[in-house]
Amino acid sequence: MSLTGKTAIVTGGARGIGRAIVQRLAEAGADVVIGDFRRDEAEATASEIQKITGRQVRAVRADVTDLKQVEALRDAVLQAFGKIDILVNNAGWDRLMPFLKTTPELWEKIIAVNYKGVIHTCYAVLPHMAERKQGSIVNISSDSARVGSLGEAIYSGSKAAVVAFSKTLAREHARDNIRVNVICPGLADTPLLSEIQQDPFGQKVLGAIVNFVPLKRLAQPDDIAPLVVFLASEAASYITGQVTSVNGGLTMVG
Ligand SMILES: NC(=O)c1ccc[n+]([C@@H]2O[C@H](COP(=O)([O-])OP(=O)(O)OC[C@H]3O[C@@H](n4cnc5c(N)ncnc54)[C@H](O)[C@@H]3O)[C@@H](O)[C@H]2O)c1
Fold first, then answer.
1. Would you place residue 42 in the very low, low, confident or very high pLDDT band (cuts 50, 70, 90)?
2. How does the average pLDDT of the chain come out, rounded?
3. For residue 59, which of 34, 69, 138, 225 is within the disulfide window of CB 3.0 to 4.6 Å?
């Protein structure tokens, strides 16, 4: 599963699951650009992982909800590396709340980050990949997209949109030798999860769910990252439009 000579973009790579993905891709030989709006954290992550792996790892400040910033991210990567082989859409955000307590402002924010962010990066990067007849896109959705999740009505919908969007792109761009796959994490031990648990409702719901995980623990970011490396690599050259959960068995969708 060597990615030597490949160039990857990872959105939301400053921390959490994204950080583990950046490290695993670089360990497999890829040069990686983190696109994240946490500039300082992203730069620190990039320089630490560059030191550990010896690959080129850089950070570009970009908010995925803004198409112009995403296009600037793409241009920066093309200027530095001349090509983009791998796109990992990992940036995401959520807060737990019963649907009827949510507001239109919250809907907008959740849909903008989790769904429109993925639309933006794909819109910006696909023409380049199609021209080269080569590319692998891995979108980080959520198990909630497949089975719903209490307190996450809008988030689950936005992540389900990512699944349908990814399958459609997989069909449209198979002729361009571009593969598009989806990973659905279950509950993962990340800064996002800690932030959600600061709220009593979030703590109650997530605390209850953990008890139903057959493998009896939360995911660590490193439980998810190796699957990204596999899907990005030539070892997965016959896999496209697929959705895989990494969730300790919490749900087992057929
Ligand atoms: N942690 C979980 O339990 C869990 C479960 C299922 C799915 N996920 C998904 O996994 C992905 C990573 O989540 P995480 O738990 O590591 O979260 P995290 O908050 O710990 O890390 C997310 C990263 O994305 C960045 N980001 C957020 N909004 C952005 C934006 N608009 N533009 C650019 N960067 C942005 C953040 O700065 C951060 O570095 C997300 O898509 C999330 O929805 C997480």
1. very high
2. 97
3. 34
Number of H helices, E strands in the chain: 10, 7
Residue type, 19: R
Tokens coding 82? 């001349």
- 155 noted as active-site residue: yes
**Residue 101: which domain range?**
7-188+221-245
In this structure, the residues whose C-beta lies within 6 A of any atom of ligand 1 are: 11-12, 14-18, 36-38, 62-65, 90-94, 113, 117, 140, 142, 185, 187-188, 190-193
Does some domain include residue 150?
A: yes
User: Ligand 1 centroid to 238 CA: how many Å?
Assistant: 28
Report d(CA 24, CA 43) in Å as an integer. 17
Residue 1 confidence (pLDDT) above 90: no
pLDDT value, residue 254 = 83
What DSSP designation does 177 have?
A: T
For residue 237, the tally of other CB atoms under 10 A from its CB is 10
CATH number, domain containing residue 182? 3.40.50.720
Phi, psi of 83 (to 5 degrees): -165, 160
Residue 110 lies in a domain: yes
Residue 142 lies in a domain: yes
Q: Is the pTM of this model over 0.90?
A: yes
Predicted confidence at residue 192, as pLDDT, reads 97
* Spacing of C-alpha 64 from chain mean position: 12
Query: Which pLDDT tens digit goes with each residue over 207-222?
Result: 899 999 999 999 999 9
Which residues have a Cβ under 8 Å from the Cβ of 71 and sit 6 or more positions away? 124
- In this prediction, residue 125 carries a pLDDT of 98
The answer to whether residue 204 is domain-embedded is no
Count of domains in the chain? 1
In 10 A of CB 220, how many CB atoms? Answer: 13
